[in-house]
Please model this.
Amino acid sequence: MSLDALRETIPAYAKDISLNLSSLASETLLSDQQKWGAFLASAHAVGVPPVVKAIEAAAKAAGLSDEAATAAKAAAAIMGMNNVYYRALHLLKNQEYRTLPARLRMNIIANPGVDKTDFELWCTAVSAVNGCGMCLDSHEEELKKRGVAAQQIQAALRIAATVNAVSAVLRGELASA
Model:
């Protein structure tokens, strides 16, 4: 399924979501690798099959390398774990847990197989999807150290929000069918 075909499955009540999906596919604040990696990482974070398939096809058609696609999926995977763990630490009243080592393997973060800035951007997008403030702060800080502009970070967040919304709409439509 193409991105246009995906947009055609979005009902009229979610026209804004469809229009946002279209405009974000043409986003120029990010490199193509950053943009399509953010799309792919966000789609994998949400995990709605038609959305994942359409975005995988669009990313491939846009030239996202196999290495970058793998790294984007790795960002979704590692943040799927980290976002739950660190969100829990943030929510727990007992601060003792923050002093304990995580004891979770996270080697992919140090060596993602693509430019570290791109991987950090994708982790930020996934952290937005998963709602982890601690991870958002941590990855945004790393991006700022690397000279990434606020508008670029916002673009990744807008992609994450829109992919999440498309997925929510299609889940709802599938549930009511």
Observations:
- The chain has ten helices and no strands.
- The chain has one domain: 3-176.
- The first helix runs from residue 3 to 8.
- The mean pLDDT is 96.
